[in-house]
Amino acid sequence: MTYDLIIGDRLFSSWSLRGWLAFESFGLPVRLHEAGLYSGTLAADLVPFAPARQVPAMRTPDGIVVADSLAIAETLAERHPEIALWPRDPAARALARWLVAEMHAGFNALRGDCPMMLAHGWDGFAPSEAVLADLARIETLWATARERHGADGPWLFGEWSLADVFYAPVAARIATYGLPVGAAARDYVAAHLARPDLRRWRALGLTKRYDPMPYAQGLPQVAWPGPAPLPARAVEDGTPENAACPYSGKPTTHLAEIGGRVFGFCNAGCRDKTVADAEAWPAFMAVYQS
């Protein structure tokens, strides 16, 4: 009973991130398909998901196509009542839906001026008054959820929910552009950046090269503000510590030096995603720590 989900480029498609997190963070089985947002193939790639025109779009195991991240989220919540995608408490659930709906329909200044870009951070970005107003509203919503329902954990409603799924790209934008928010909001942003699923999403995005890089700002680049990855690079020579790829179990053909040690992988994709952020991948870290 596996779903199909088509997504756009990971470094830039905030709506795709929301759609993917709705599956990944709740352990729902999904088979991914990638559409070319910047290669001109989007319309052709979406044909199997007709009549969808944008990513993300999903196909349920029984063949129903659903587009739009909010429609996908509500459909998953309806089909999987055993999983708390929304908060269980009715008052918390109502507020969570409110926060998600406002995010889905609003914050246009933040979206327009600060497109999602996960490759690195920018130094010296000057937010407009409209962006500052969006940030103030976001902080109000986050603080309201935390004060009323968030005492039992780091997320908006204590435990992770669809509300956090929908605000993950907002947190990423605040981090990328160094936007001014208060201490509580900064802690919430940091919690998102530290999540292994978000780190895996970004690592996979970093395996793809762009020339030119979309959404250039003409500002100095700074290191990504999330957890610093292990030092790593692809290498051509060396004797790997492992004989089998950590992911596939196949013989190793591609090498990387990670933390000063050499490891092998079955293809360039497995190697490159690990080089991008080794600690995001439990299968590799099991080998690294053994």
From TrEMBL:
Keywords from the UniProt entry: Transferase
Residue span(s) of domain GST N-terminal: 12-78
Lineage: superkingdom: Bacteria
GO biological process per UniProt: glutathione metabolic process; L-phenylalanine catabolic process
GO MF term (any one): glutathione transferase activity
UniProt-recorded name of the protein: Glutathione S-transferase
Native organism: Limimaricola pyoseonensis
